[in-house]
Design brief:
Number of helices: 13
Strand content: 15-25%
Number of strands: 14
Order of helices and strands: HEEHHEEEHHEEEEEHHHHHHEEEEHH
Largest sheet: 4 strands, antiparallel
Number of domains: 2
């Protein structure tokens, strides 16, 4: 499918109330941000344009993901009034990411579910998952990472400093893994699709193969204008006063600004693991006092502000 169709597909199915498991992919690279995020905040649009990387903002949650030919996209659309759809987003993720965990294990990869929606292998993330409500349906949008282009992902992100970009790149390499990394090579996509389908059928019952229904294709074209409209794509989302990239649950890279310069913070398992000054007059000793703090952006800003006024 064309890159934009892989995202328009589940939006259209959700709005129409069409239940489906869609296993898709694309050869065209693109980045996709979540509902609460803003494209101008998250991405370097000029770099993406120069690099022929598409940009999409979806109507469901989750973070920024980079998608290309080395991923199998797994999208599940279910009506909320089904008896087997549990209440609460956390329960929804746990139940319907289960077949993907089993698919990885069938390959010999010891994936585990980690709340709220991570799949981890030895502490490293092996999928990018988002979810939410579209129309009368709940939607799960996830993937199998066969391989990953860390450099393109880092290049696509809006970074307040090159030190920030370097930290994000290193952090992704430490906190993400792939089928290729775990096995040495990725099986054919047809094999992976068969594994995933079998395991979702074990949970949901028989799934009938189908082409793209005409009404879904028509709805995809109808909503294209809406989801690529300048107003939707230029919205800033839930903007924070600091720049932050989430690597996996509990792990972040963030940069905070003050009158005396910026501070780059790396967060591991919910606590500040390192802090370094970026320009300005703050010393490494000053910002080193942040190490060990629980990661709370507002508290860190207050602490840095007190440093800057001394």
């Amino acid at each position: 499918m064309h890159w934009d169709q892989t995202q328009l597909l589940y939006h259209a199915m959700g709005r129409l109330g069409v239940e489906a498991l869609a296993l898709t992919g694309t050869i065209e690279p693109y980045v996709c941000v979540g509902f609460s995020q803003g494209v101008p905040v998250e991405l370097d649009r000029d770099w993406c344009r120069r690099s022929d990387i598409g940009v999409f903002r979806r109507e469901i949650g989750g973070g920024t993901v980079f998608i290309d030919k080395d991923q199998l996209l797994v999208q599940l659309v279910l009506r909320r009034d089904r008896r087997d759809v549990p209440a609460g987003q956390a329960n929804f993720f746990r139940r319907f990411l289960g077949p993907l965990v089993e698919s990885y294990r069938a390959l010999g990869i010891s994936a585990k579910f980690h709340p709220i929606n991570d799949l981890l292998v030895g502490g490293r993330k092996i999928s990018g998952t988002g979810g939410g409500e579209i129309g009368d349906c709940n939607v799960l949008a996830t993937n199998m990472l066969l391989d990953f282009d860390f450099e393109k992902m880092a290049g696509a992100l809006r970074c307040p400093s090159e030190l920030f970009r370097k930290s994000v790149l290193e952090g992704m390499k430490e906190n993400l893994t792939t089928v290729k990394r775990e096995l040495g090579a990725a099986p054919p996509v047809t094999v992976l699709k068969g594994l995933v389908r079998e395991r979702y059928e074990a949970l949901l019952g028989p799934l009938e193969p189908s082409g793209l229904p005409f009404q879904v294709e028509a709805e995809m074209e109808r909503i294209r204008v809406e989801l690529f409209h300048r107003r939707w794509m230029s919205d800033l989302g839930a903007k924070k006063s600091w720049r932050e990239v989430k690597l996996r649950e509990g792990c972040y890279v963030a940069q905070f600004s003050s009158e005396k310069g910026d501070v780059l913070v790396e967060v591991h398992d919910g606590n500040v693991a390192s802090a370094a000054p970026v320009g300005g007059t703050l010393s490494a000793r000053d910002v080193g006092a942040l190490k060990g703090m629980e990661y709370d952006g507002e508290q860190i800003i207050n602490r840095i502000s007190r440093m800057a006024t001394r």
